[in-house]
C-alpha cells in the first residue's frame, strides 16, 4: 500500500515540481530563505512527500511548521487551499482499481481500491505530525478551516482527511483521564476558565470553588497536546438530585467546603469541549461514562449519577408551538396569565387585536418575573407541562430535538426530572424560561436506552416525567405523528402540522 | 463519512446477526455466559459495531478483549479468519461510488469513493482499541497473524487494515524517546534482554555493562503500550571509529566505566525492534536520527555518529560469486589459499577433481582460522576487496543488497569503513567471515545520500572504501549490469548471469 | 544515651502520671473519649514518652495531633505551657553529671553531661513528628508560641527546643530547590500571593507576570511540608542593573514577555520567608547562592547577580540624624529646600521658631514630591549622600544597621549602587524617600566580604558608592567612631553622639 | 544558643588555627592545593565552623567532601580521630554553666547548661551535611567508624554525635515508605540483592520471584539518600500461617504467580537493614507496622500479619542447656535418640565414657537427618518442647533472649507458633535445628504485649505455645527464675545455674 501511495504521490508531485521549477526555482534551493514564505510552505509540503521526506521527514516537517507559524492569515488560507486542491489520489490508478473492482467485486479488489483511493494528503498530514508540535499545528489548521468551511466548500476534502486522522489518533484508547483540582498546574487551570462553555467561570476565586473538596473535575488529555485539556466535566457531590444551578455555583465562605453528610449523588453540571479543531470527534460520551466509573470506585457512597443540564431550544420551540396551537394552553392557564398584565397594557394591546398566546406568555415572562409569586405561579404549570412535551418528542434523527437532550439521550441517559427555576441567570431565562433538566446515567439501562433512542427515537423517561405528560387537560396534547389537530379556541394561529425545529448545530461544546 | 460507514456496517451486520439468530441464539442473550467463547467473541465483535458499541463501546470492547484472552489457539485462528472474511465495505454502496467516480472523476467523488471503500473492519479495530489494553491486544493479534500469513493469504486484508491503523497510531509524533539506563525499571530492562536481536545479552551482568556510564541506550515508547519498548538502540562512547565488536561487549572490572578521555564518537552497535506485531512500521530511521540529536545536545564533544554493523548476507553472496566467477580471486590469491591446505587434503581433493575457488576459500576459512596468522593474512586481501564489492553494488530495489546495508544506506548513511575481524563470534564468522561495517550518519549529507540511493541506487561511500574497489587487479571485477563475463579459468561453474540473491526478509529487527 | 533520656523521662513522668491518676483517672482509660481534650492532649503527650510511645509511637502521635487540632485557643496556650513547664531533664542525674564534670572535665564526662542535659521534651517533640503532618503541626505550634513569646518568657525553653530541632531538620541538605512557574500547582502559587512580603502580589494576573518567561522564581521546599514553600525569591532577567522597581512590577500587554535581547543580569527583587514558625532558621543565604548557581548553569549569558532592595530604616534614621546634626545638610542644600516652601507656610512656621532641618526636609518630601522637578532636584543630592552614609556605617553587631543591608552584607554581598526614585510606591516613600539599593553577589568576593563584615564591621562597597561618600562637602562627614563632631550652624539640635538606632527586628521576611 | 555555640567554637578553633598557622601555613591559603589532603580536610573542617563556613557553608562543605573522597584509609582514620578529639564544648563556659546549675537548678539554667554542653562538633557535622551527598558521606563516615569502635573507644564521642544527629534526621516523619516491585529501577533492586541479610537472594531470577504478584516488598527511603533503601521487608501472601520458608523461596514456573485463592495472611519472611552507618537508629518497628497498615488498606481480605522468623540462638543455647541439665530430656527421649546411633559408633563412644545428652543429640542431628523419618520423629518432641522453653524465658533485659525474638516481642508481637522443619537450609539447621517461629502482629494487643515485655519481661504467647510448655513430663521443666534445679540422671554435667547466654549483638540487620 505504502508503495502505491508513494508512486501515486510521486507522479502527481513530479508534475507540481516541474510546474514550479518552470517558474525558475530550481530543485536544489527549494527551501531557500529567499523564497516567499507561502511558496516555501508549498515546496516543503511537497518535499515532505518526496524522498527528502523519507530521509528526514521529522526535520522537513519541523521546517514546514516553522514556516507555517510565520504566515499571515491570507497566506495560511492559501496554504489550506493548496492542501485541499492537491495531493489527490492518482487518477489513472484509481480509475483502474475502480474498474477492476466493478469487474470482480472481490475482497482483495475492494482492498486495492481502498488503498488507491486514499489521498496522498493523508500521508502528508501524517508526516507533518512527526515534528514536535505537529499535532497541535494540525488541530489549529482545522480550527481555522472550520471557521470558514461553509463559505469554502472546496476545503471539504482537507477537513475530511483531518477528521479521519483525528478520529484515529484521538481514539479513546489514547486518551488519558486526569483529575483536575487545585493541585493542577495553573497553566492548565487557566484553560478551564477560557474553555468553560456552559456556566462561565468568573475568575480564580470562582475556579477555586469549582475545584473544592465537594466538587470533582476530570478531563481527557492526549500526549501530543500536553497541557491542553480536550474536554472536561465539572461535578458536584450532593445529597439527592440537584435541581437548580445557582446554589452549585455560589461562592462559599468556607475555603475548603466538604461534601454534605450522606452525599449520594454526583451532579454533572458542566461539560465543555476545548478544542474547536477536534469538532466532531466524540469525547463527551466516553468522558461521562469513565468519570462515573472513577467516582464509583473512589466514593462508594455515590448511588446516582446525573446531569443538571440546560434546555437551550425550549423557549424558541415554545414560541412556535404556541403560535401554531392556540390550545397549547388551557383557557384557565391563558386566563391566569392575562390577569397578570396591567390593564393599561391589556388595553393598548386590545386595540391591536387579541394578544396571541405566545405573546401573552412572553409578556408575563419578562424580566425577573420569577421573583413575583403571582407570575411564577401562573407560569409554572403550563411551562413545566410544555417542557415535558418538548423534551419527550420522539427523535426522528432530523434535528427536531433539543441538542443537549440529543447528546445525553443518545448516550443512553434517561430524562429523569424537569426542574422549575433551575437556572435564573439571564442565559437560563433567555433559553428556557429557567427550566433545567436532570439526565440520569444509570449503567444498567444505558444500552437499552441508547438503542431505543437510536432505533425508534423513543426518549427514556422517569415515571415523574411521564406523569407530567399525562396531566388531565382537555383536549390533551397528543405527542408524535398521531396527534389529532383541533380547532384553536383562542389566539391560535392555525392547524398546520408543526415542522421540525431548525436543528441547532450539534453543540457538544456546551453539552450538559 | 461516519454515517456511510455505519450504514454500510449495519446492513452487513444485520445479515450476520440474522444468520446467527437463525441458529437459535436470540439477540438478547448475545453475550450470554453459556455461549461458546469463540461465538461470544464473534457476537461481541458484531455488537461493537452496532448501536450497543456506540452506547458503550469501551465496555463492549473490554468484554471482547477478555473473551479473546481466554481463547485457545485454534479459536484465535478462527477469530482472525472471522475478522478477515467479514466486515467488508458494503458492496452496493461501493459499486455505486466506483461507478460514480468513473462517470466523473472529481475530487469529491474520489473522496466519496475512499470513504465507501474503507472496510468497516477498520472501525471495528478502532473500537477494540478503546478498551484498556486494546492496543496491546491488537499488536498481539497481528503478531500471531504474521506468523502464518504466508500460508493463509485470506488473512491479508486483516493484516492490511492493522498495518494501516498502526502506521497512523504509531506515527513518530506520538512516540516518546526515553533514555534507558540502570535506573530504568527492571520490568523494562528484562525486555532488552529478551528483545536484543543483534548481540545477545547474556544476563543482568551483561546488561549492566551495556548501560554503564560509557554507554547510552535509548528506546521509543508509546503511551498505549506502557512498559514496552518499541525499538531500542545501544550506543558506545569511544574515541575514533570502533572497528570491532568484541571489545565493546567485553565485561569490565570497573563497575561504572567512564567514557575514554577525549571521546568523540558515538558508535551505534545494536538496534533491535521489539514488537513483531509492528513489523513494517518504521521506527529505526527516526530513532537513530533523534538519538544523534540527543547525544549532540547532551555531549557536545561528540563529532562522529556511526554504526558498527554486521554484514549478514556477505558469506552467502560470496559463495555464489566465487562459484560463478573463477576470476573473482587473482591466481596469486588462489595460490596463497591453496598453499594453506594440508597436502593429504589437497590430494584427496585432487582425486575428486580441482577444488572450486568457493570450496577452497571455505576450507581455509574454517574454525578459528583468524587465530592462525598465515590463514588470516591470506584471506584478508580477497575478503576485504570482495566485501567492498558486495556492499557497493548499486541498489536495484529488488533485494540484491545486504539488508542491513539497505536499512542504513536507505536512511542516508554512508558506507564509511569495512572492518577486518570486526566480529569473531560464531555468528559473525558464519555470516560474513567476521567482517563488520561502519555506516556513518553525517547530518549534512543524509538527504543527498538517501536521495541518490533511492533514485539511482548509488551507494554513498568514503574515499577509503572507494580505494578498496580501485585496487589494481586483472581482470578487474566490473560492478553492475555492464559487467563483462569472462571464461572461468579454474573451477568456475559457468557463465550464467548472476541472479539477485534471494532477498532476505527486510531484517530491521537486527539492523545495525 | 537513649537509655538515660528514657529513664530520666520515666522518673519524671511517673510522678506526673500518679498526680493525674490521684485525681481519679485510672491509667487504662488515659485516652478515653470522655476526658476533656486538653487533658487528653496532656496524657497522650506523656504516653508518647512512655512504653506505649515506644510500642506504637506513630499511632499515639497521630492521636495527639488529632486532639491538638480540636483544641480551642485557650487550651492550646495551656498545652504550650504544659510542654514548656514539664519534660525537663531529670534533676538528680543532671546534678550528678554536672558534679562529675566539674570534678574531672574530660571529653567523656562532657558528653555524658550533654546527654543528661537534653530535655526529654526534645524526644517528645521528635516523637510527635512521627505522625503524618507532624512537622507541620510543630511548625504551627511554634508560630503561635512566637506570637506571645515576649509576654510569656516561660515558653522560652519550648521555643529553644523547637528551634534546636528545626535547625537540625531543616538543614540545607534536606531542602529541595524548586523552580516555580506557571506550570506549578495553583495550590502552591496561591501561597506566593499570600506570603509575598516585599512587593505585594495583587492577584493572579500580577502573579502570572512575575512568572513570565523573563522572570524566574525559586523556592525551598521540605518533604515533610509538602506544598509549602519555606522561602522564595523572585528574579527579573534584564540588561544592566535595574535601579527602579516599578518597571519590573508593571503588567505587560505581552502574555509571555521574553527577556530583553542581550540580557546579562539577574535582579533578585523580592525574597520572602513563608513560615513564621521557622523564624530564625536561615534559608535566605543559601537560597540566593544556589539560585545564582542554577541561573548560571541555565543561562550562561548572565554576568551579574544583584538584588534590588528596599532600605527600610533610612527615613527613620535620617530624621534622627538631622535632628542631631544641623550640619548634615550644607547651607546651600538647606537653602534650596527652604526655597520650595510656600511663603505662607514659611511664615507660619517662622512664628513657631526656625524650622528644624529634619522638619524642613519632611515638609518638602511630602506627597508626590517626586513628580515636581524642583523638589526632586533639591532633594536628590542630600538624600543620596546621606543614604550612602547610612548604608556604609560600620556594623557594630548591635543593630545599628539597616536590616536588609545586614542580611545581604552578612551574606557577603557588596553595596553596589544606590538608586534614586527606585520605589515611588507609598511604602517606598514612607520607608526611604524612594531610595533603593543594589546589593551585588559576586561569587569571587563573597567570602572576603562576609568575613570583613563579620569581623570588623566593614561594609563592602563599589567605587561608585565610595565616591558618593567622598563628595566634597565642608565639613566632610567622617564615618565610623572617629568622626569629629562639629558645631551645628543651622537648626542643629546638639552635639550628643549619635546613638545606635533601635534595632528593627531582623526582618528576613522582607529581606531584599 | 547558636551564639554561644559559635563563640565556644570560635575560641576553641582559634587555638587550633594558631597551632596550625605556627607550623607555617598562613590562613589565606588554607585550602591550597599543595596542602596534603589530610591537612586540607582538617583545615576545611575548621573553616566550616568559622566565618567562612557561615558565608559559604555549602561550598566549603562540598570542598571538604571532595577531599574526604580522595583520602586513603589511614588518612580517613586520622580524620575521624581529629573529629573525635576536637570540637569539644568550651571548657570554661561549660564549667560556668555547670556551676550555675548546681547553684540553682532552674529550668533556665538547665537549658543554658544543655546549650553549653552541646559539642560544636554537632554543628560541624550539620554543616557538612549541607553539601550535596553530605548525608551519604556522614553515614559512610559512621560505617567506617563502627567497624573499629571497639578497638578505638576514643571515637565514641564522634559516634555519639553522629547517632544523635541521625536519630533526629531519620525521624519516622521524614521517611518515605515505598513499595518495591519489578517496576522499581534496577539500581535499587540490585541493592536488595546486596543487602538481603536473612535469606540470601541468589540472583535476578530469585529476586524476580520475591517481587511477584503474590509477594510484597516495602522499604523506607530518605530524601537525602536517593536510591538507597534504609530497610526493607519481604512479604508473602498466603492462606493460613506459613510454617516453612523453603516453599516461600522456591522459584515458580509461573512467571507471574498470583496469591492463592482465599489468601488471608501476610507473612513477613525477611527484614533487612541496609545501612550499617545507621545502626541503632530504629526502623524495623515502624516499617512492619506501617506495612501492616498499607496491606490492610490495599488488600482488605488480609486477616493475619505474622512473621516467619529464624531462631538464631536456639542451638547454641540448647547445647548449654543439655550440658547443664541431664534431665532436660526424658529417659525415653534420650533412649530413642541413643537407639538411632549405629552400634559401632555407640561402642567407640562407650569406650570414651557415657555420651553426654548434648553430644548425643548433636550426633543424631547431623547432616540431612530430617530426611530420615526415624531421626526426625525422635528429635521432634524434645526439640520443639525445648524451643518453646527457650523462646518463652522471661526477658531480663540482659541479653538472655534470642535476638530476633527480642526484636519482635519488643515490638509488641506475640509468639504464635513454633514450626518444625521450618528451615532445612544449612543455616537454618546450623542455627536452630531447622526450627522457625511465627511472631504475630495483632494491632489490638501490640501495646499491651510491648508493655508487659518491657516492664516485666513477660513473653506474650499463643495458647498453642503455652500448651507445648505444659506437656506432661517428669520432672517438668520450670520456666523462669523459680525453676528448681534437679540432679542429673544421665550424662549431666552438673547443677550449676544456667548462665545467660552471651548476648549476640542486637541483630536487627537480620531481624525476622
TrEMBL record, chains A, B, C, D:
Residues 499-512 have a biased composition (Pro residues). Residues 87-170 form the Malonyl-CoA decarboxylase N-terminal domain. Residues 173-442 form the Malonyl-CoA decarboxylase C-terminal domain. InterPro entries: Malonyl_CoA_deC (IPR038917), Malonyl_CoA_deC_C (IPR007956), Malonyl_CoA_deC_C_sf (IPR042303), MCD_N (IPR035372), MCD_N_sf (IPR038351). Residues 475-512 are annotated as: Disordered. Signal peptide: none annotated. GO terms for biological process: fatty acid biosynthetic process. Pfam families: MCD, MCD_N. GO terms for molecular function: malonyl-CoA decarboxylase activity. Gene3D superfamilies: Malonyl-CoA decarboxylase, catalytic domain (3.40.630.150), Malonyl-CoA decarboxylase, oligemerization domain (1.20.140.90). PANTHER family: MALONYL-COA DECARBOXYLASE, MITOCHONDRIAL (PTHR28641:SF1), PTHR28641. This is Malonyl-CoA decarboxylase. It comes from Teichococcus aestuarii.
Amino acid at each position: 500500500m505504502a508503495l502505491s501511495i508513494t508512486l501515486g504521490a510521486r507522479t502527481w508531485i513530479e508534475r507540481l515540481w516541474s510546474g514550479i521549477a518552470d517558474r525558475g526555482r530550481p530543485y536544489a534551493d527549494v527551501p531557500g530563505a529567499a523564497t516567499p514564505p507561502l511558496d516555501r510552505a508549498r515546496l516543503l509540503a511537497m518535499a515532505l512527500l518526496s524522498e527528502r521526506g523519507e530521509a528526514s521527514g521529522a526535520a522537513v516537517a519541523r521546517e514546514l511548521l516553522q514556516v507555517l507559524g510565520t504566515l499571515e492569515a491570507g497566506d495560511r488560507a492559501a496554504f489550506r487551499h493548496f492542501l485541499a486542491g492537491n495531493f489527490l489520489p492518482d487518477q489513472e490508478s484509481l480509475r483502474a482499481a475502480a474498474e477492476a473492482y466493478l469487474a470482480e467485486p472481490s475482497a482483495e479488489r475492494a482492498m486495492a481500491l481502498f488503498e488507491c483511493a486514499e489521498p496522498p494528503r493523508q500521508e502528508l498530514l501524517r508526516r507533518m505530525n512527526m515534528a514536535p508540535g505537529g499535532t497541535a499545528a494540525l488541530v489549529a489548521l482545522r480550527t481555522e478551516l472550520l471557521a470558514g468551511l461553509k463559505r469554502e466548500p472546496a476545503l471539504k476534502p482537507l477537513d475530511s482527511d483531518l477528521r479521519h486522522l483525528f478520529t484515529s489518533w484521538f481514539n479513546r484508547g489514547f486518551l488519558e483521564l486526569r483529575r483536575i483540582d487545585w493541585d493542577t498546574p495553573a497553566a492548565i487551570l487557566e484553560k478551564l476558565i477560557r474553555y468553560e462553555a456552559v456556566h462561565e467561570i468568573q475568575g480564580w476565586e470562582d475556579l477555586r470553588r469549582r475545584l473544592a473538596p465537594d466538587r470533582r473535575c476530570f478531563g481527557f488529555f492526549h500526549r501530543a497536546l500536553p497541557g491542553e485539556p480536550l474536554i472536561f466535566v465539572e461535578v458536584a457531590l450532593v445529597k439527592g438530585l440537584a435541581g437548580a444551578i445557582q446554589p452549585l455555583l455560589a461562592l462559599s465562605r468556607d475555603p475548603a467546603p466538604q461534601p454534605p453528610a450522606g452525599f449520594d449523588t454526583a451532579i454533572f453540571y458542566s461539560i465543555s469541549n476545548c478544542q474547536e479543531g477536534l469538532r466532531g470527534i466524540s469525547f463527551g460520551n466516553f468522558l461521562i461514562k469513565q468519570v462515573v466509573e472513577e467516582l464509583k470506585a473512589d466514593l462508594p457512597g455515590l448511588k446516582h449519577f446525573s446531569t443538571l443540564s440546560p434546555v437551550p431550544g425550549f423557549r424558541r420551540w415554545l414560541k412556535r408551538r404556541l403560535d401554531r396551537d392556540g390550545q397549547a394552553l388551557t383557557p384557565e392557564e391563558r386566563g391566569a396569565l392575562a390577569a397578570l398584565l396591567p390593564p393599561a397594557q391589556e388595553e393598548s394591546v386590545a386595540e391591536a387585536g387579541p394578544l396571541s398566546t405566545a405573546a401573552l406568555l412572553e409578556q408575563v415572562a419578562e424580566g425577573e418575573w420569577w421573583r413575583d409569586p403571582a407570575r411564577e405561579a401562573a407560569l409554572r404549570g403550563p411551562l413545566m407541562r410544555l417542557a415535558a412535551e418538548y423534551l419527550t418528542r420522539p427523535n426522528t434523527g432530523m434535528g427536531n430535538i433539543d441538542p443537549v437532550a440529543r447528546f445525553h439521550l443518545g448516550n443512553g441517559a434517561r430524562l429523569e426530572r424537569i426542574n422549575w427555576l433551575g437556572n435564573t441567570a439571564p442565559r437560563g431565562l433567555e433559553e428556557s424560561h429557567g427550566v433545567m433538566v436532570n439526565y440520569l446515567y444509570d449503567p444498567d439501562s444505558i444500552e437499552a436506552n441508547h438503542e431505543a433512542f437510536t432505533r425508534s427515537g423513543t426518549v427514556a423517561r422517569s415515571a415523574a416525567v411521564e406523569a407530567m405528560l399525562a396531566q388531565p387537560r382537555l383536549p390533551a396534547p397528543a405527542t408524535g405523528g398521531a396527534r389529532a389537530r383541533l380547532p384553536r379556541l383562542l389566539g391560535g394561529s392555525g392547524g398546520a402540522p408543526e415542522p421540525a425545529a431548525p436543528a441547532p448545530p450539534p453543540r457538544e461544546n456546551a453539552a450538559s
